[in-house]
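Reviewer comment 2.1 asked that we show a complete input and output for one of the modelled complexes. We chose the magnesium ion case, as it is the one discussed in the main text.
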Amino acid sequence: MELRDVVGGSLQMLAERPGMAHPYLTLSDSETGESWIEQAHGLTKEQVRRGRYAFGEGIVGRVIQSGRTRVVHGSSPKFLNRLGRSEPEYMSFICAPVRLDGQVIGTVSVDRHGADPAELQVDVTLVEAVADMLGHAIAMRRRAAEARITIEAENRRLRAELRERFRISNIVGSHKSMLAVYEKIAQVARSNTTVLLRGESGTGKELVARATHFASPRAEAPFVALNCAALPESMLESELFGHERGAFTGAIETRKGRFELADGGTIFLDEIGELRPQTQIKLLRVLQERSFERIGSNQTRRCDVRVLAATHTDLERAIAEGRFREDLYYRLNVFDIQLPALRDRREDVLELANFFVNRYGSERDPPVTRISRKAARMLWAWDWPGNVRELENCIERAVLLAGGGVIRAEHLPATLRGVEPGDSEARGEAPALGDAPAGATLDEALHALERRMLERALGQSGGNRAAAARALGISERRMGLRVHKHGLG
Ligand SMILES: Nc1ncnc2c1ncn2[C@@H]1O[C@H](COP(=O)(O)OP(=O)(O)OP(=O)(O)O)[C@@H](O)[C@H]1O
Ligand SMILES: [Mg+2]
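Response of the prediction step:
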């Protein structure tokens, strides 16, 4: 209930009592003590305007000053009658303090006509009860408002934190394939275009989706993510579009779907390739018409939602095999961003590793601040089938094991230790130096040897091309050409 209604109801209740008129609530300024009529029953606007009292002035001012209820006869010189009532000599004025956490913050008062002293005493008790009750109501209201302010401030802080964390500039990597990603985000963020994010697991699809949202004009509105592979079809539809109460067994309450929750913002549909045909049709309709129905309802709802979708599966193949609708594919694939696998941008491995050392290591006491050369070489040499997520987990764990200072080789998983450059068996990689694969031509064998030597040199230099070139006795320029030829950079 609104505070105004609570006060209004109480004042009306007083006004309806026999012989009572003009009840009003005053509030006072906590600094100056000056009070004004906050709400009244049966007073003109002009009277309300006139009803201002300095601290200690008139009856209202005295009640505020002393914190004690006063009853005065209308003919008393103390009664100022600032509101200009006619014939005040036939009335008494009852005024009780309103307290908030023990402090007087205002008054409740009423005019009482023709009461004998005994009746007047009953009325005083009533006015005091109303004043107490309003004090509680105001206190509760303030507490709720304070809680709301705290929650809003907290929400603002969290949103700012999210925004900061998912800034495009916080996506790490300077390989040219990543520069292309940044450029694409910048091109598309400010529009409402549907984006399809593709890339292996752990390459940063969700990260890019969030960055796109936070760089868009929708940044202040919700970002709602849903993994389409995580739920069975029946539940997925109700998650997406919501349902009416009783729409199916177990639908005990009406629930909004993610599209409704994301209204004004962005929805991120992860693993879109896993959608069943039935749901694909419904999604297609949302993309085309921006409208849908809750399950069990025939009321069409409209939504203003930007759609970002992600998949690590081969959608073209799914279309060819009849598992994915081609029309939906075209709707989703308006603009696509391809996230590179980490092994295809090895130069970024150490930059990312250091970024995660900073993220996880700086919270430790003592902090973990760096990676040893040997460990760096191992990170560089690994193929990272789980991509950035695998690297992130690996560093988070290494930080714990390191306990402070430096991450060393022994803090890395055994699988990585097995691939120390030069250790070809562990990596399951033929050929060893000089061992050409059976049936290979000379050119093929030389090519394989060259690649192997390059990899080893780069591994030992921690990815530093100049150092690798020196070790191999070739110029940096030739090194660059070879690295390019073998797709190592
Ligand atoms: N370029 C990057 N810079 C910094 N952190 C990254 C980068 N790419 C990925 N990450 C981090 O790696 C983790 C995995 O990323 P994300 O969840 O976005 O991957 P994904 O492509 O959605 O994977 P999946 O397909 O398995 O869901 C996240 O913690 C993310 O913050
Ligand atoms: Mg993901």
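Residues 421-434 have pLDDT under 50 and may be disordered. We note this here for comparison with the apo prediction described in Section 3.2.
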